[in-house]
Specification:
about 375 residues; alpha/beta; six-stranded parallel sheet; about 40% helix
Length: about 375
């Protein structure tokens, strides 16, 4: 039997998510991927990761990595404001792109990525990293259980977690954080993110509250809201209200049932970060005789189960409770297998640029609800 084709990977951005998640996962999937180049703004970080993960080429020059002959797919793992320019540059070079969520922070920026993908040589494609949507328990169990509910009455989307450092410290990955950044790097970041947030708010003033809201939704929020969209069949009909009290954010949304009834139901979104070492991330859907909930644990510690809990009314009127765990394989590993299948075997990719733009449209709905409530324009 022939060995599968290995995709040659270039890593752009060697920070925490690269060191804790992607580099170890790609190394473990060595029959599908091989790490060939890594780039970071910090020369010491690039060297450290190249040494630790046996990567033959390292650089501080993004163009050098993007045009490297031994790179098939570029992983864009930089901060959010650099996602669009690096994704577009990689596409222009004919490289496939895996870009961590969020795709970007504004719809105009996303449209520029979509245009670059349409014109890219070599059939280069973009895969957006929404790993929770590739978790086996979500794909194989949760979606089917939700579809079996004839009429949804209510749904809840929650992501309330403690500090990342607590979980990273127990991951066994020992990431380093070095600070040999070029002069002016921070100023460039601030300028880029300011321009993106101004686009996201359609030219309105970038207040500290709007900046924080945008960064939160692009970070933790995009995990939950993207998962919600797939579970419930797309965007809500409307965003009725939001609550913005950093570091916690809430929204009340109206959805319609799929199928014949099209009756409305409410969805509550609640998310935030505090200093309690917990990871409470779940989506729960309630019907008349059945409720379904998927529970995620921290992705920074491999092998923690993602469980689907079903509670329903039994034939004798009793409560029946079932737990389904489709696999111990973590969501990031499942996501990487799907990335390989999309790029090598031509599978249909569900987390495309167009799909990620739906998150940005939902963010816009939330921004407008916030402005209505604040009496701002």
């Amino acid at each position: 039997m022939a060995e599968p084709k290995k995709l040659r990977v270039g890593i752009l951005g060697a920070g925490e998510v690269a060191q804790v998640i992607h580099l170890p996962t790609l190394n473990l999937l060595s029959t599908l991927f091989t790490l060939t180049s890594i780039c970071d703004i910090s020369a010491q970080t690039a060297l450290h990761c190249a040494t630790k993960f046996h990567i033959p080429h390292h650089t501080t020059s993004a163009p050098e990595l993007l045009t490297h002959a031994c790179v098939d797919v570029v992983f864009v793992l930089t901060s959010d404001e650099f996602h669009a320019p690096y994704t577009i540059a990689a596409l222009h070079a004919g490289k496939h792109v895996f870009v961590e969520k969020p795709l970007t922070l504004s719809l105009p920026s996303a449209r520029s990525i979509l245009a670059a993908e349409a014109a890219a040589p070599n059939g280069a494609r973009v895969f957006v990293g929404y790993m929770r949507r590739y978790a086996p328990s979500f794909v194989r169990a949760f979606r089917a259980e939700v579809l079996s509910i004839p009429r949804i009455l209510y749904a809840r989307v929650r992501d309330i977690i403690g500090p990342n450092a607590y979980f990273v410290g127990q991951s066994g990955t020992e990431p380093v954080r070095l600070a040999d950044f070029p002069v002016g790097a921070n100023a460039e970041r601030e300028e880029r993110v300011g321009a993106l947030v101004k686009e996201a708010w359609e030219g309105r003033e970038v207040t500290p509250e709007r900046m924080a809201y945008t960064r939160f939704l692009g970070g933790l929020g995009s995990h939950d809201l993207s998962l919600m969209r797939e579970a419930l069949g797309g965007l809500p009909e409307r965003v009725d209200a939001v609550a913005v009290h950093p570091p916690f954010y809430n929204a009340l949304m109206t959805y319609r049932n799929r199928g014949g009834s099209e009756e409305a139901f409410a969805v509550v979104y609640e998310s935030g970060v505090d200093d309690v070492p917990r990871f409470d991330a779940h989506v729960a859907v309630y019907g008349e005789k059945k409720s379904v909930e998927i529970r995620y644990d921290t992705p920074y510690v491999k092998g923690l189960p993602i469980v689907v809990v079903v509670e329903e009314k039994g034939e004798g009127g009793e409560k029946v409770r079932r737990e389904v765990m489709s696999s111990y394989e973590d969501a990031y590993t499942a996501e990487m297998r799907e990335l390989w299948g999309c790029l090598v075997e031509g599978r249909v990719c569900k987390t495309t640029v167009g799909d990620a733009m739906e998150d940005l449209r939902l963010f816009n709905m939330m921004y407008k609800a916030y402005d209505r409530q604040m009496g701002r324009t």
